[in-house]
Amino acid sequence: MKLQARDTSIGHRTEEGVRTKLVRIAQRAKRDKAAKFCSLSHLLYKSTLIEAFWRLSPKAAPGVDGKSKESYAENLEENITDLYSRLKSNSFMPNPVKRKYIKKIGSNKMRPLGIPAIEDKIVQTALVIILENIYEQDFLPFSYGFRPNRNCHDALKNLSRDIGTKKVGYIIDADIKGFFDNVNHEWLGKFLQHRINDSKILRLVKRFLKAGILEEGNYYESKRGVPQGGTLSPLLANIYLHYTIDLWFDRVVTKSCKGEAYITRYADDIVFCFQYKSDAQKFYSSLKDRLNKFDLKLSEDKSKMIEFGRFAQRDAKRRGETKAETFDFLGFTHYCSKSRRGRFKLKWKIARKTFTVKVNEFGEWIKENRHLAIDEIWRKVNQKLRGHYQYYGVSDNWKGLENYKREVIKLLYKWLNRRSQRNSITWEELRQLIKVFPLAEPKVKVNLNSAFV
């Protein structure tokens, strides 16, 4: 009988720094995939809590405790000492998450926003600092969401490399319905126990999951889902999907396919690639059953299987269609096209829905801030333009950047003329103003074509 692997070598309280211990934990996790870590809670030192505190955004709204980062910092040493004492004695109890609703731009719907209390954010972030060192050794290469040194552009490059250089003929664009609100606590606990055998850490995570929600003075239990707005939520979500989707696809699905099969996942936004239609159809059917097993559901209206790849355009024309189908991923519409040499090429443009949302967001902002001085408006507008170019400035999306800047100028004209009861600026005056105080020009920041090389 094989004994359970334990990490007693790093469990002793020595003079080693926290960072040294975390490095050793990561090395052990990478070396031994069966190791269970039994001594992690002692790493919730004051230094870990202080590091977690400084990682928090200073702009975040206060939770149910009414404390901001600034107010908590006034007596930081005393507050951290008290927090550490409660964690050590297992008397720390998370507060309910404060729920607010904000208007969803481009829609009449309201979007729920979770705001944890300041100490809950600190402890959650400290847990992430510790647990990341274990799970970063387990997460698979095609997982990109909410992971250190990985971003949306990396996910887009991975997907374009699969489609552009490998045998891909069919795409499944999968959307999990209300994923973050439907994570099953029992299953999540089982997944965590594959690697974590520290009862204090597991108890702490469970307390966060069960902390509940406070909405307009009314308390609601948390029977499922991960804590809204918490820094721990993305890590827990990745752990859940690692066991429900990633390992299953990597170890079971790919081996049962007749042809090649690939996956790119950014949090709960997933694209599956297949060489053959039969493999894609078989997988699409089994995906629903797989998700149902873990209390998740596929959003039927947002998920689809399409023919996509180097032969999709040709086959579409044979069927009498003008062009191959497209799909959206991470705010970009992916479509089949050709290079200058006439070869197949994957191209990208900002998704129509995303473009509308971004324009509406800017419209809401300029409406609320049109009273500012012109130079201040211009400074902030340029910040927003550069931020837009930073993310959406990818290969082949030049036209989308120009269209966005054009819409920004139209909105500037509209709302600058509503600073008073009469028109205060003409189009010619606005053009002259832009000459004197130029707006940031569109710029391609990310070359996704490199994925084909």
From TrEMBL:
<dbReference type="InterPro" id="IPR043502">
    <property type="entry name" value="DNA/RNA_pol_sf"/>
</dbReference>
<dbReference type="GO" id="GO:0003964">
    <property type="term" value="F:RNA-directed DNA polymerase activity"/>
</dbReference>
<dbReference type="Pfam" id="PF00078">
    <property type="entry name" value="RVT_1"/>
</dbReference>
<dbReference type="InterPro" id="IPR030931">
    <property type="entry name" value="Group_II_RT_mat"/>
</dbReference>
<keyword id="KW-0695">RNA-directed DNA polymerase</keyword>
<protein>
    <submittedName>
        <fullName>Group II intron reverse transcriptase/maturase</fullName>
    </submittedName>
</protein>
<dbReference type="InterPro" id="IPR051083">
    <property type="entry name" value="GrpII_Intron_Splice-Mob/Def"/>
</dbReference>
<keyword id="KW-0808">Transferase</keyword>
<keyword id="KW-0548">Nucleotidyltransferase</keyword>
<feature type="domain" description="Reverse transcriptase">
    <location>
        <begin position="83"/>
        <end position="334"/>
    </location>
</feature>
<dbReference type="InterPro" id="IPR000477">
    <property type="entry name" value="RT_dom"/>
</dbReference>
